[in-house]
Amino acid sequence: MIKEILADLVRIDSVSSRSNAEIVGYLERRCVAMNLVTRRFPYLDDQGGEKINLIALSEETEEVELALVGHTDTVPYDPNWSEATNLTERDGKLYGRGACDTKGFIAAALTALENTKPKKPLALIFTADEEIGLRGAKRLAEAKPLRVRYSIVGEPTSLKPIRAGKGYSLAEVMVEGREAHSAYPALGASAILRAARLINRLESIAEKLKQDQHDAFDPPFTTLNIGLIHGGTAKNVLAGECRFTLEWRPIPTQSSEVVLKMFTDAIEAESETDPDIYVQIDASRQDTGFETSPDSPLIRFLEQATGLESGTVAFGTEAAQMKLLGSEAVVIGPGDIREAHRTGEFVPIAELERCEAVLRQSIQHFCS
Ligand SMILES: [Zn+2]
């Protein structure tokens, strides 16, 4: 049963760049067949493609006891990988794009609900565009169609309950210079040298960030990265422009603004010796982290059901948006995050089945 659903889900190509209407249609048919009430939340993505968040409720309500949350989209796959949309079983594992991230969890959630009847209101929440910045979940968090008490968000964690996650912030930085012939540097100002001085300051900021510690995480502080840099037009021209990305992953106890403030202070300090410096910062993402108390009934229950101690992750998840819907949240699912997002993605069958059992017990526990 669970394998058949997963095979169906994997067969439907739902890479984030495509519309997720087909996979949502499939999920909705299955939900309606279980007598769930479905609600669609459509929107157009940046390319004008149709995207849909789907909510399926065990009864007509706006107050839900438990939500099981899975994203419908996947990262792209290599067209030469023949198993990508053709779920293949080998050595107790199921291979395919989305097998663990996150169609395995969705198949387990559907099967769990087919095998148990919630007495208190339960919701299945299927989101769009998770892999390209949690966009579907953010829309739901804004629309607030539901209040949710507890939510279980599917992501490959090898069934370890995850009770906290770091946030994710991104800024694109443009440093302006003044072009000149490199034989006469005094006639211009190199944007690359300016960027280099700022990056030096960012390295000091990264050191300072180590002082604000959150012991549940590894590493236990906000980290930052400059992943891309681009500038200049020719070897003998002082660069007129240099752009770089600044990415940081704040611990949930620290606002995303802290790093931005430290960076603008650094630019200010730089302008004391370089008064003409001009920097434009486009802070395009500020996704908050999340943290649920280790004493939460949700965490306690899942630790006991899985036999695994709860932990934390250093990446962003939809748990932050579920928190905005009023819920205590946990992230859990079959498969290993290190196997996701690559050719040969798989989910171990035993974990997939174990996940179904854990979700079934969760429904019985929280919705009875
Ligand atoms: Zn995922």
What does this structure look like?
This protein is of the alpha+beta class and 368 residues long. Helix content is 30%, strand content 26%. It has helices at residues 2-11, 21-33, 103-114, 135-143, 191-209, 257-270, 297-306, 319-324, 349-366; strands at 37-44, 50-57, 63-71, 88-90, 93-95, 122-127, 147-154, 162-165, 168-176, 223-225, 229-231, 241-249, 278-287, 290-291, 311-313, 328-332, 346-348. The chain has a 6-stranded mixed beta sheet with strand order 1-2-6-3-7-16, with helices on both faces. Helix 3 (103-114) packs across helix 9 (349-366) and helix 7 (297-306) packs across helix 9 (349-366). It is elongated and about 75 Å long. The relative contact order is 0.19. The model has no long low-confidence stretch (mean pLDDT 96). Zinc ion binds next to loops.
Q: Strand count, sense and closure of the main sheet?
A: 6 strands, mixed
Number of strands: 17
Distance between the termini: 24 Å
Helix content: 25-40%
Radius of gyration: 23 Å
Name the bound molecules: zinc ion
Strand order of the largest sheet: 1-2-6-3-7-16
> Structural class per helix/strand content?
alpha+beta
Order of helices and strands: HHEEEEEHEHEEEHEEEHEEHEHEEH
| Count of DSSP H/I helices | 9
Task: Tell me the strand percentage band.
Answer: 25-35%
